[in-house]
What we know:
By secondary structure, this protein is mainly alpha-helical. The chain has one domain. It is built from eight helices and two strands; from the N terminus they run ααααβααααβ. α7 (130-156) packs across α8. The longest helix is centred in the last third of the chain and has 34 residues, at 160-193. The mean pLDDT is 87.
Amino acid sequence: MILNHLWGLYAHPKEEWHTIDARHESFRYSMIHILLVALIPSICAYYSAVHLGWSIGVGERIFLTAESARLMAVAMYIALIAGVFALGLLAHWMAHTFGAEPTYTQTLELASYTSTPLFMVGLAALYPELWFVMMVGLAGLAYSVYLLYVGVPILMHIPEERGFIYASSVVTCGLVLLVVVLASTAILWSSGYGPAFTH
């Protein structure tokens, strides 16, 4: 089963990381996991933008046209997948500095499983209140970071002290990737590729 580690990462993360480390699934397995989990925020965001409408506080709900929301959902899906692969690549590149010798598949596993709680936050878009999505988003981010700190020493086979510094470096890279995605979005929107709203 493709998502067989999902429950374990929430119920008993440390034991689940040991299970992941013992099995070390193929690159294809990790890729399918990413492709499936990244659908959650994309589909939920599309549905809420077209059918439910977003509430950002005061005023009426904001709706997007179906075509505009579809384009944004596809762009989000591609950006999420590219972000995970880039994070895996950066984690692989940095591993040698901290005395680890993982394969790219191992660092991709690390990136894909630690990003899973963040992607699951997409379910919050089915209740499209900005404050609610932000609160759930912060919780998802915090748990993703926690999974990273727990998983790095186990998957990379390095001491916890070194693993802490390595995980902190990966978090920094993840934040830089997030800023790049947000800046790219702002540039595209200001260039005329912004969303189309319905009234």
